[in-house]
Amino acid sequence: MTEGASSSSHAPSNGTQLRLQLQTPAEEHGRAIFVSGNFNGWRTGSGAYEMQQTGPGYYEFNFPPDEWLPEQLEYKYHRGDWDQVELDRFGNTRTNRTLNTREQDTQSDSVDRWLVDGLAYNPAYLPKIEILTEDFKIPKLIRTRRIAALLPHDYYETDKRYPVLYLQDGQNLFDDYAPFGSWGVDKKLALMKEQGFGDIIIVAIDHAEKDRITEFTPSYRTQLGAGSGKKYLRVLADRLKPFVDEHFRTLPGRENTGIGGSSMGGLISIYAGLIYPEVYGKLMIFSPSLWVSPNIPFRVMNLNDPHDMDIYIYAGEGESKNMVPNIRRFMQAAEEQGDASFNFELSLDPDGAHNEARWGQEFPRAVEWLFYSQSSQTS
Predict the structure, then answer these.
(1) Average pLDDT of 193-197?
(2) How much is the pTM?
(3) pLDDT at position 219, please?
(4) How far apart are CA 211 and CA 202, in angstroms?
(5) Cβ-count burial of 245 within 10 angstroms (0-12 exposed, 13-18 middle, 19+ buried)?
């Protein structure tokens, strides 16, 4: 629950009955659904605010015509308590719903999914996690670190082949107690599997701890100097990817291979796509640290090879004053370079923060667009 401040002034409904209409998956037939909000102190468990089922997946609640209501109504739907509250289709907690009781008398809503006993996902669909470090020999030019493959939960029960997404900063992707928070990729994959777009292998590459910035900095003049990014990316493209393709049932072509990350991990992933377009056809870029290299030197990149590329970019407009302008400049510059065709999807959140939790929320949307949307599959 995200409680808003209740309005101190309440407006009568003037004899007009306020109605809430709800549509939710039909399998919820027979489950009691309630509404709580600033009109009842956000209390749960009150039969007075139980919705009436009008059909499979359809519910309705009518406020009594003489009930005094806040002028700005805030509310959420739940199935009896906050451990069964409504979620969006990607398993994220919704912000409070609102409506103006002076201007509306009917509101139609929809709920895609619900928390179930406090869980947004079905544990049966959690991916299998295999650590590759012991088998994969990392050359001395980059620091040894954990590399993990997150495989579909039924990987060993099928003979299917899967697209692969390589992600930076593996420490922050699925560890519940990561020091800077976690994307919760394992849980998101379980949720995505239920919805039909979780058949993908994620390769999580831990960063190099104290050498992270150096390793994620491109190997040309930047605000941080010239880093060892080119050496790092050479290992991923020339050593790690062949190892993964040999040991797992992958779809190895560039059209089914992506790379991504956030912040400095987003910057190095852009660099990876530009110097290895024959390897990566899809980039997942979250809140990239383009301030480090605001003017990408495309002339030194491998863009003469006319590979098309799908690029999903997310940013919070409140992260910094230069975040979105830098992204827009990068997109414009990329589209003006070489013969390659860049297919961009830009996702901006006016209130988005620069943290793992927000990037985890964006992860399913990005995977769906990159690997499962019609536009990306036909590019």
Answers:
(1) 91
(2) 0.88
(3) 74
(4) 23
(5) middle
How far is the C-alpha of 174 from the C-alpha of 258, rounded, in Å? 18
Given this model, what pLDDT does residue 210 score?
86
- State the sign of the Cα–Cα–Cα–Cα dihedral 52, 54, 59, 61: negative
Is the pLDDT at 59 greater than 70? The verdict is: yes
**Distance between CA atoms of residues 198 and 127, nearest Å:** 9
Q: Which residues, including other chains, have CB under 8 Å from residue 272's CB and lie 6 or more apart?
A: 233, 236, 237, 259, 279, 280, 283
Residue 179 burial (CB < 10 Å; 0-12/13-18/19+)? exposed
**Shortest CA distance to 372 belongs to which of 233, 203, 165?**
165
Asked if 187 and 180 count as a contact pair (C-beta separation under 8 A), the reply is no
Give the three-class secondary structure for 211: helix
Other CB atoms within 10 A of residue 335 CB? 12
Write out the H or E segment, with its range, that includes residue 316: strand 309-316
Q: Is the pLDDT of residue 66 over 60?
A: yes
DSSP assignment of 224-277: T---SHHHHHHHIIIIIHHHHHHHS-B--SGGGEEEEEETHHHHHHHHHHHH-T
Closest by CA position to 204, among listed 230, 231, 178: 178
pLDDT digits (tens, 9 = 90+) for 154-166: 999 999 999 999 9
Write the pLDDT tens digit of every residue in 356-373. 999 999 999 999 999 998
170 to each of 126, 153, 155, 195, how far by Cα in Å? 17, 19, 21, 24
Residues 193, 204: Cα–Cα separation, whole Å: 18
**Residue 102 in this model has a pLDDT that exceeds 60:** yes
